[in-house]
Design brief:
Pfam families: EF-hand_1, EF-hand_7. This is EF-hand domain-containing protein. This protein is mostly helical. The chain is 57% helix and 7% strand. The chain is built from ten helices and four strands, in the order ααααααβααβααββ.
Length: 228
């Protein structure tokens, strides 16, 4: 457990107040809890001799795998890109809070933007057939008697393009993806799981936001701890 001094707590509260004006879906107290969790993760990372100014890929990958149950390396890399808004290869505390607001409590529109960014592997603002094929190879299980899985995946890609490529240009733009998901929500994670399921979300929130009764009122008590 990470012990906080009065000075550190005051700094965290001030930081949370600033972030609460920018980030939706979390209360100021919840943001304080998330900042403390970020600090614990960063301290553990520094203890391993790693970067000290944010969460690196290795630390973030551990959170996605161990807490949120994401196992596909390609999707994990995509979620990292979605969080890492400035593209510096490190997730700072503001990116951590903003990313979690979408991952845990985001609206459908926010999740559409997140998933599209994950699936846009080369960040060129469109999803090409080759990208879809590459992602599906990582996501789909090979059947025991399947002679040519590549051909099966190509068939799935063609069916997907016919269904989602509304402007028929051979590419999935954000508008194509957005229109498709709004029409059929199940297409949100069509190319791989990049959002935690509700059970994982509940577990994380219970771990980080430990609700207690204080003086007869419901309030949150943040207890910095490792995510294990």
């Amino acid at each position: 457990m990470l012990q906080m001094s009065a000075k550190s707590r005051k700094a965290t509260q001030a930081q949370a107040e600033t972030l609460a004006k920018k980030v939706e879906h979390f209360t100021k107290i919840e943001i304080e809890c998330l900042i403390q969790t970020f600090n614990v993760l960063q301290a553990e990372q520094v203890g391993r001799g790693k970067a000290s100014h944010g969460l690196d890929r290795w630390t973030f990958r551990g959170v996605l795998q161990n807490i949120f149950g994401l196992t596909n390396a390609m999707m994990i890399d995509g979620v990292f890109r979605s969080f890492d808004k400035d593209g510096d290869g490190i997730i700072n505390v503001e990116e951590w809070i903003e990313g979690l607001s979408v991952l845990l409590r985001g609206t459908l529109d926010e999740k559409i933007k997140h998933c599209f960014q994950v699936y846009d592997l080369n960040d060129d603002k469109v999803i090409a057939r080759e990208e879809i094929c590459h992602m599906l190879k990582q996501s789909l299980l090979k059947q025991p008697n399947e002679e040519d899985p590549d051909e099966a995946i190509k068939d799935v890609v063609e069916i997907t393009m016919k269904r989602m490529d509304h402007d028929h240009d051979g590419l999935l733009s954000f508008k194509d993806f957005e229109k498709s998901v709004q029409k059929e929500n199940l297409l949100l994670e069509a190319f791989g799981t990049c959002l935690p399921d509700p059970t994982r979300i509940e577990k994380f929130e219970h771990l980080v936001f430990q609700e207690q009764q204080e003086q007869g009122n419901n309030s949150y008590s943040c207890t910095p701890s490792t995510l294990s």
